Structures are given as C-alpha cells and as structure tokens.
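Posting this for the archive.
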Amino acid sequence: MDDDVAIAIVETVGAGEMVTSSDDGLEASYLPFHAEVSGSGGLRALTTHIAAVNPQRRHDGAEALVLFRGPDTFIPSAWLSDPDEGLVVGASWDYLTVQVRGHLVIHEDEAWIRAQLRRHGESVEPDFDFDELSEDYWSKMGRALVGVEIVVDSLVGKAKMHQNKTPEAIHRIIAGLRAHGRDDVADWMATHSLAHAEARRDLIESLRQGD
C-alpha cells in the first residue's frame, strides 16, 4: 500500500490504539489522533492527548505502535465461488489496517497542549469557534491532560481486499457488498482492488502476447 493511501486511512479513521511498553509491561489506549504531514507529503508525527493519570504518561521516550483499523467485513464463499467454472472456495475476512511505529514524546507544557487540542479540534469540528472557550477551561485542560506526540519512524498499510483475485471475481464481491449495505468496503475494492487486478491481468496478457 502506498504511503499516501495509508495516510488517507489514518486521517479518515481518526482514532487508533496506541501501544507502548515499560518495565511494568504493555499498556494500550484508544485515542483520537491528528496526523502531522510534512511538506513532502510524508507522515511526520501523530499528536493527541491523554489524561494526566494515564500510566502511558510514564513511557516518555519509549517505542510506540499505533494501530488504525479501516473497514473490515466477512466475505461469504458464495461471492468467491464460481460454480460455472468449477471454482468453489471457502469464506474469508477482508480488512484494512495501518501500523504507525515511532517514539513517544510526552508534552506537559500547557501551551503545547492547548495548541494540539485546538489544531485537532478544528480539523474535526471546523464550525466550532474555539475562541469562545474560557481561559478557565483551557487551564483546567492543561492540568488534567498531557500532550502526546508520536515521532514517526515507519508507516505500513496492509490491505486484504481480494486484490489478488480476477476482475470478474472482484465484481462479484463488490455486488454482494453493495447488496448488503457495505458500500465502504465496496468503494475501496472498486477503486483499489479492481484497478490492481485489471493491471495484473493486462500485464499477464501482454507477456503472453510477447511469447
């Protein structure tokens, strides 16, 4: 999966599971994240905030893994099989995930926390006027929260969306998904899986013609 597609999933999903470890073991928190994209289009960092009492506050500097889940769904065998061609296969489960790895930086500065809350808030609720929030509110948030920044080392998107099937098989799956109200998965397949399958088919055909 290309990085720009993976970043789009992160931005669309909006929240993920942040996993860190310490001498006390693993800790995980499900959090809303704001994607900080560099000028070159890469994912520079993820920012969010946690309660000041969250034990992950003590994991400053630790390695971190953030898991984002895109749409997923059961694919019944009937959509994958083609009895007319003598093809009968078992059911499957399709999914999209993005794994972001990096290092955790904890920010206790109230100005940083305020800026993060505002930047993230404006991205998800652009019609809200954050200037209406009182200084007392911001002060309370500064005491109750700590800022979180994941400085990104790697970004890996994983798609199991039957992109290895034939275009005809993908069309059958898309039709089944739409009939069952799963346009989110169907749209992904129509845009990505089908294009991949058609490109692979065209390549194979061109190689055969070359022989």
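The beta strands are 15-22, 25-32, 34-37, 43-51, 63-75, 92-107, 145-160. The chain has a mean pLDDT of 92.
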